[in-house]
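[Discussion] Sanity-checking designs against the backbone

I'm trying to build intuition for which residues belong where. Below is a structure token string of 197 positions. I'd appreciate it if someone posts a full sequence so I can compare it with mine line by line.
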């Protein structure tokens, strides 16, 4: 399984390099590390097995493996607290943000899902694409979040930060079961479930 994941990660890296070549890359001399692409959009693909690769990186991948497969990945990240209160280390790399806990990627902020849900999409579009949300919550900073199933077998959830009914930020997170437990324990749901009044 580890070899398979490594191959998928390498495939994502190759796709990233191809995308960079197609969009034009800065010249680099022999033995020189190419300059970073500050405005390079993230390459977001799914492997058909439910896993989402962002620049060849997946949720659950170890930070050591990420660095081994992506030479330009930052050595240092920024300590942050998620809207849930959980502490993470955030790394910005090629148009996406990677949140690491216990040596592995636990969340990725990306510009869009493989199905095209992005900033400016409506929650109606997200619901049409992913089904009814499994949880909705607010954070102490005023953010509102809708949680959808991304991949049941991998415990992955799409978390969309929204304002009004419009998506502002897109996250893939390894917290589907925790979000379901939080929803069950919540005193009242932010979203009405289908069939309820």
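Best answer:
Here's mine. Compare freely.
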């Amino acid at each position: 399984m580890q070899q398979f994941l490594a191959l998928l990660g390498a495939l994502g890296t190759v796709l990233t390099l191809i995308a960079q070549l197609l969009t034009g890359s800065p010249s680099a001399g022999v033995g020189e590390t190419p300059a970073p692409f500050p405005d390079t959009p993230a390459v977001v693909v799914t492997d058909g097995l439910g896993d989402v690769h962002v620049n060849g990186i997946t949720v659950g991948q170890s930070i050591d493996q990420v660095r081994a497969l992506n030479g330009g990945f930052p050595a240092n990240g920024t300590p942050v607290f998620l809207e849930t209160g959980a502490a993470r280390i955030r790394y910005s790399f090629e148009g996406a943000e990677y949140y690491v806990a216990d040596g592995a990627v636990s969340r990725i902020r990306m510009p869009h899902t493989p199905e095209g849900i992005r900033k400016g999409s409506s929650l109606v579009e997200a619901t049409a694409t992913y089904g009814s949300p499994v949880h909705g919550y607010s954070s102490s900073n005023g953010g509102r979040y809708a949680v959808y199933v991304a991949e049941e077998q991998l415990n992955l959830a799409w978390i969309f930060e929204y304002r009004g009914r419009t998506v502002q930020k897109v996250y893939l997170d390894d917290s589907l079961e925790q979000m379901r437990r939080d929803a069950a324990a919540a005193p009242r749901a932010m979203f009405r479930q289908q069939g309820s009044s």
